[in-house]
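Let's sit down with a protein and look at its sequence and fold side by side. Go ahead whenever you are ready, and we will take it from there.
>
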Amino acid sequence: MGELILDLVPVALGVVLSPLAIMALVAVLLSGRARTNGIAYLLGWLLGLGGLLAFFLWLFPQLAIRERNEPPLWVPVVRLLIGAFLVCAAVWVYRKGRAHVERMAAASSPRDVVAASPQLPGWLHSVESFRPGRTFLLGVGLFVLNPVDASCAILAALDISQSDVGGTAGAVVAIVFVVVGTLPVAAPVLYVIVRGAEAQPALDRVRTWIAGNSHVLNAALLLVIGALQLEKAIAALL
């Protein structure tokens, strides 16, 4: 069980350090319905993470993933494809963030600096008008439809399904994975519930830091996860 948890650490960090999800959450918490929408977003994220993980934990045993104590050919192929995708995503995230930094460094006026700085995706500006139901769907969609987060959930389910731990231990590990993956959303929501309007300066600082610095950390993490999956896939195929 300890080895399984260690295998899941980088995958869990891939969920925890999801910049788009956190930036969307900050936008939600700066809206007029911060408390109710924050809770709705948290519940949506929890359903997206827990639901996707539970689905693949059910699916993989149906595919006889541990038949004859050896995974079938499609298991390393899935790892290979996801690993290659994550490595490519790491390169894309880093290059995009570096381009923003270079444009800011070349800016010659305050207006140029503002224009070059990373901005929230345009559709997030409409979060201000969201009601709890729509915000709940935003939380679900930002996990399920984000290929990086979804890939991390699939890899976690694959590792748990392939492990030698029993059903109960596997369920405990899955629950811990969901709890850890929900913490970066739950903590700011609880902070806003407790502090109310006083939380806004801290949220603004978080948004600014993520927009300017998260690309390097996120790219490095995606590269590590992708490389680990490629190593497992190649070892299984040889």
Summary: DSSP finds nine helices and no strands in the chain. The chain has one domain: 2-237. Residues 107-117 have pLDDT under 50 and may be disordered. The two ends are 26 Å apart (CA to CA).
